[in-house]
Amino acid sequence: MAFDLLDDQTDDQLLAAYAEGDQAAARALMLRLAPQILSLSTRMLKDRSEAEDVTQEAMLRLWRIAPDWREGEAKVSTWLYRVAANLCTDRLRRKKGQTLDDVPEIEDTAPNAEAQLIAADRSSVLRAAVEKLPDRQKMALSLRHFEELSNPEIAEIMGTTVEATESLLSRARRTLTAQMEKHRETLGFAG
Amino acid sequence: MEKESYNLDDLLAEERKAAPELPTHLMENILADAAEVSAAIAPSQRSEVRTRHWLHRLLEPVGGYPALVGAACALTLGVFTGYSGTVSLDTVPVMGEYIANYSGDALDILGLDSVSNFDPLAEG
């Protein structure tokens, strides 16, 4: 199958083509889905090497399920995000040695906290604020604002309800807003 | 410098543009995995996938399996109706007997000699 013709194929169709032996379909799927998985994993794990491992593992599971995939029953991308989210959760649990429940944000009171940030860089401040979020809030926010998924999709990926997802997002946004307010003057925002 | 008010959604949207690119070694690893898994897929599995995919492409434009089931039911009912012929009260034994036995009483109550003399538009 010519590579440029694959742009019109849905993820379902590409996965079926891969299961029938078409390696070009695998490449097209990888280029379509793997960057988003890497993006989510990097934000969650804060470790590029681990994020790449998660991305590779998630794609491996996709290849393995390809022969059994039923077209039209579920979205490939949602399934893949769910696998990646679970892999990230497992790694974070192993690191922290605790269950992945929301924990209160711990205020960084180190005297050089501000010096650690790239001064007056809004992107860096926002990134630092996102990284400080509790894991489930960070995942919900990443899926909503960076991966641009809908709340029902996020609920399916995280194995929760739409209401719980909205609550996570609301708390995440409140926390980020509070963090950005602290640096309002530094970042040149109007008071 | 004039200060601007900030919007969290705008800041998040800017951050969204900075998604990481896939490094070459990761792409090679992913594709190597794909090739390895593909080599292990049995020909019978590939054939099953091909059939399933073909059926899905055939049925999807008309609404998939639910639409097919609905059409099959409609077809069955239509054939049955067509082959069973015209249905009337005369051909339904039970109803025919009921009418034969009881219609006379009803006609007496209405003061009619027979149903054929009944004119619903007649005055009086």
SSE topology sketch:
The complex is a heterodimer of chains A (191) and B (124).
Chain A: H1 11-19, H2 23-45, H3 48-65, H4 76-96, H5 113-116, H6 122-132, H7 135-146, H8 151-158, H9 162-182
Chain B: H1 8-16, H2 24-39, H3 43-59, H4 64-84, H5 93-110
Describe the structure.
The complex is a heterodimer of chains A (191) and B (124). Helices cover 66% and strands 0% of the residues of chain A. Chain A is mostly helical. Chain A starts with 10 loop residues before the first helix and ends in a 9-residue tail after the last helix. Chain B has five helices and no strands. Chain B is an all-alpha fold and 124 residues long. The chains are: A mainly alpha (191), B mainly alpha (124). The A-B interface holds A 13, 16, 18-21, 23, 26-27, 30-31, 34-36, 38-39, 42, 48, 52, 55-56, 59-60, 63-64, 66-67, 70-72, 122-123, 126-127, 130, 141, 145-146, 148, 173, 176-177, 180, 184, 187-191 and B 1, 3-6, 8-9, 11-16, 18-23, 26-27, 29-31, 33-35, 37-38, 41, 45-46, 48-50, 52-53, 56, 60, 64.
Defining traits:
A: 191 residues, mainly alpha, elongated, B: 124 residues, 0% strand
Quick overview of this protein structure:
The complex is a heterodimer of chains A (about 190) and B (about 120). By secondary structure, chain A is mainly alpha-helical. Chain B starts with 7 loop residues before the first helix and ends in a 14-residue tail after the last helix.
CA(first)-CA(last) distance of chain A: 57 Å
Shape of chain A: elongated
Distance between the termini of chain B: 100 Å
Instruction: Give the count of helical stretches of chain A.
Output: 9
Give the chain pair forming the largest contact, with residue counts. Answer: A-B, 49 and 40 residues
